[in-house]
Here is the input.
Amino acid sequence: MTNDLEAIRKGKILMLAGTDLAGADLAGADLAGADLSQANLSGANLAGANLQRAVLRANLRGADLSGADLSGADFRNADLRGASFANALVRQASFGGAFLTGAAIGNLDLSGVDFRGADLRGAALARAILHSADLSNVNLSGADLSGSDLEEAILNGAVLRGANLTGANLLCASIEQTVWDGALLDRACLQGTPLSN
Here is the structure.
């Protein structure tokens, strides 16, 4: 598998659907456009990897995606529980229906990212930029969104039970049928939302 891993790292093998790469060291790999559908990448090291436009509808539980380029990547319905995204580039990625429970995705620019129907319970999103992100029907119960920028974000039908939104910017966010039970909204900017009244 060592020769195969080297070929994968260099981007010579991009059709990896269903491949078992659990715990693999793919740090810095060039996997732009790769098909990793249904692959097992649990615990894999993908730090600094180029995963632009890759199809990652896979098991990435506990994977290290820090510093990776995930621009335009497709994570729909992926298992990303406990994954680390520190310093990753995530522009225009899709996380619809993904499991991101406990994932560390704070301090990232997630502007315009599609999270529709994702499970972000307990996720660390502190200081994330979620400007115009689609968080419709997302479960953010217990998530840390403190200091996050949710300006013009779509939170329709989202569940924010016990979420920490201290100091968050929700300017003109769409919040129809959003559940706020026990959410911390201290110093949050709610201007332009029904909660500002």
